[in-house]
């Protein structure tokens, strides 16, 4: 790659301009510095470094000008390089009358300065910010891509004539791709990366920030490696069925061919139309070279998306020039094959400047332009919001669709922050009608996941470390409930309850609190307790309440293939109080049988109320969730409290400005001189000639309006008389063939037309009588106006 060396440049100081308007005139874009006067704030004064160049800068611009002329002579076929664009103060005109006060809701004074060009290298401001979130290239790229809104180049085949400073871009949260790259490169240089701005050409999707054909990165899930199931080698193997390997191979090949055809047809359908400007669209991105900050290979960063690309990526079609804060290089290699460059031999020393840091605050890292950003992907849409923008704490909303046109939603995934109920994520599956909610720690009921499948199937996961019962998971289905535990002292890890079907009374609702739920079957399973012998350590306990039995199964002893199984049967005779014991598999016990009977019967009396309590607790959680959703509250930190106070003050200022604008507009609407004063630049003080001219124009305008009204009424009257005459002629021609109904209709039409003619003549006569009075009244009103009165007497 041949390089043309320009010259080492000199860094200059820049500052911000808090108010900047844009004028779009044909194919050019101009930025106008507007000094805004707001009552109570005073006049903003811009430093001189933004409005003029120093002696060293003028010398540098002269050298760059000579290089520009020599380059144009040597390479007449090359497009002009982006060397010295205007900054936000580079305005040619000294006056402009295209603006009115209706464009700005405050009192505005336009200040235009002479031509002020800046070399592109001096626009870069290497900046290190004291935030760990902006110390790596990926976080810096994400910050720039999310924090700014894009302005497309107009026309897309030419570089911009204006390159704004990074501080102004940060302040206004918007800019072109060159402004994006300048800000990102300034941050990367401050963080120690060997970064450069690249001016070149890219495809339409890159230039326009179009990601509608890409998969959403949030939908790419990691493939979980499942552990193979342990197969018991002593199980009976199923009968072998003879299969043809040749037929199976043919079926697999046919299936693969069909999938390939479907994939190709889908790609052909999704392929965008050919771009007529392919290879001509100007774009600016960032190059990071290896060697610093443990960067092992060169790569590109697209500042519009915040993504990393290889230097040989086919989306970047060519390079015109590259620059950093100390030097500028021009590409002399043919880029017809893209950006596949063999060597990038640049070296530079970078100094740190604190200018940009002044406009990057802690709250600025999470804010977005206009409070939100929307990105369209392939069959997906991602919405991101600033903290505390929405009252429910919504931060992200990812919607996936079934079709490419994004009309049929398939799944909605929402992310929340700073909610008092600790809700962090909610996922709604439209196909299965399943809602899943994920909560953070310290939630009210220590739940982690809540899944609703219709109105009857629910699933909850809990933080077991925060619960006294060590509950991990609870699944409810119609008539059943399953609970899973972890780390209990009684070694219980599973409980399954089957409720008896309720017979509802007239007017009683299902799952009512009036009557307790009746348990039909209760199953409990326990882990091995090594402190007990296996013959007395219960592995599973089943309460068959309708049959009056308790089935107990113990764990396997270490040296046996069988385990103890017992059945405790409740006596049917009320006079007997002891359970009968039946040993299905007898193993000698250390303790006496009546001790086991007392243990299981005591569990029977305490376990059933616990199952009913779990059911009622589940209903309580659901009722509490409904109440929390109806009354959402957000918690705020110390940093966010300051941001909220600033937002409140900003909102009050905007409301005050809007009210002032409304009053000003209302005053202008009632001011008859407003259209005529606008032609004179909205001046409030008039000279003799201007006052006489405004008086004459105002009377002439009224006279023209009155004449137009009289002509309109006269034409209406003549048209009605002509219609009446045509009806009379038609009546004379068709008199012999007319019926009584036609005669009645003719008379009614003639009567209506004659009435409208009479009304039109009355309006015309009244207008002719009142027109001189209106003219005289306006003349007297103008002579009494304080702006015209001193010059008309």
From TrEMBL:
One annotated Gene Ontology cellular component of this protein: motile cilium
Principal location listed in the UniProt entry: other
Occurrences of domain Dynein regulatory complex subunit 7 C-terminal (ranges): 686-792
Domain (Dynein regulatory complex subunit 7 MORN) ranges: 369-635
Superkingdom: Eukaryota
Gene Ontology terms describing biological process: flagellated sperm motility
Keyword Cytoplasm: yes
Coiled-coil segments: 406-433, 703-741
Pfam families reported in the protein's UniProt record: DRC7_C (PF24671), MORN_DRC7 (PF24667)
Annotated localization: Cell projection, Cilium, Flagellum; Cytoplasm, Cytoskeleton, Cilium axoneme
InterPro entries for this protein: DRC7/lobo, DRC7_C, MORN_DRC7, Papain-like_cys_pep_sf
Keyword terms: Cell projection, Cilium, Coiled coil, Cytoplasm, Cytoskeleton, Flagellum
Family membership noted in the UniProt record: Belongs to the DRC7 family.
Protein name per its UniProtKB record: Uncharacterized protein
Organism of provenance: Myripristis murdjan (pinecone soldierfish)
Name of the gene: ccdc135
